Amino acid sequence: MTEIAKPLFGHPWIFIRGVPSLKFLPPEGPLEVAFAGRSNVGKSSLINALVGQKGLARTSNTPGRTQELNYFVPDGYSGEGSDLPPMALVDMPGYGYAQAPKEQVDNWTKLVFDYLRGRATLKRVYVLIDSRHGIKKNDEEVLTLLDKAAVSYQIVLTKTDKIKAPAVPKLVAETLEKIRKRPAAYPAVLSTSSEKNEGLDDLRQAIAETVGIANWK
């Protein structure tokens, strides 16, 4: 692992770009990890909790608000020459929002599919699953897409504070069994609660290991 001068999650992060289509993607440079999940799964809340900044990723009670690939990087790097951030977090558009117009859904779908297939610096996708509902049909479709694109992904259960504590390890075991035969699935399931700050260090550690950074605290 490569040590960096500044901790990965120990200083501010900034939003650098919203990407409505692939031509607006930033140049490939830092390694990227992306967050995917159904609309209203708590993606923005988890990203904010992960970096300790309440207002970084926009949260909304309106499902489907994130319509672009939103890029976040640690602050303090010019982005010029070799002064690049060590990694980027990418907030992907939520899927499965039934009330979105079909054309909008099709545009989101194409953007996400093209990004997954064509981004060499994308190291892993963290697929967020609401612990109250488990893996649903549209989640299965996304996992199949990731398998076909040969993009490594890991399941992250969200909102575990909304279910009884003894149910969490059972859900983790059930989820592991469901992904056991999927070729691109990382064989570990993380459980988190943004509200209670539970499981976040495990997720931070997983991200740091994925991008090869030791100094993450």
- Read across the widest sheet, the strand sequence of neighbours is 1-3-4-2-5-6-7
Rg calculated over all Cα atoms:
16 Å
Main pleated sheet: 7 strands, mixed
In angstroms, what separates the terminal alpha carbons?
15 Å
Q: Could you spell the SSE succession in H and E letters? A: EEHEEHEHEHEH
Mean pLDDT, rounded to whole units?
88
Tell me the number of strands: 7
- Specify the overall morphology: globular
Portion in beta strands = 15-25%
**Which structural class should the secondary elements be placed in?**
alpha/beta
Low-confidence stretches are: 1-5
Helix content: 25-40%
**Secondary structure tally, helices:** 5
Explain how this protein is built:
The chain has 217 residues and is of the alpha/beta class. The chain has five helices and seven strands; from the N terminus they run ββαββαβαβαβα. Strands 1-3-4-2-5-6-7 form a seven-stranded mixed beta sheet, with helices on both faces. Helix 4 links the parallel strand 6 and strand 7 (185-191).
Q: What's a concise summary of this model?
A:
With 217 residues, the chain is of the alpha/beta class. 29% of the residues lie in helices and 22% in strands.
Write the layout of secondary structure elements.
Layout: E1 13-19, E2 31-37, H1 43-51, E3 69-74, E4 87-91, H2 102-118, E5 122-130, H3 137-149, E6 153-158, H4 167-179, E7 185-191, H5 200-211
Parallel strand pairs: 2-4, 2-5, 5-6, 6-7
Antiparallel strand pairs: 1-3, 3-4
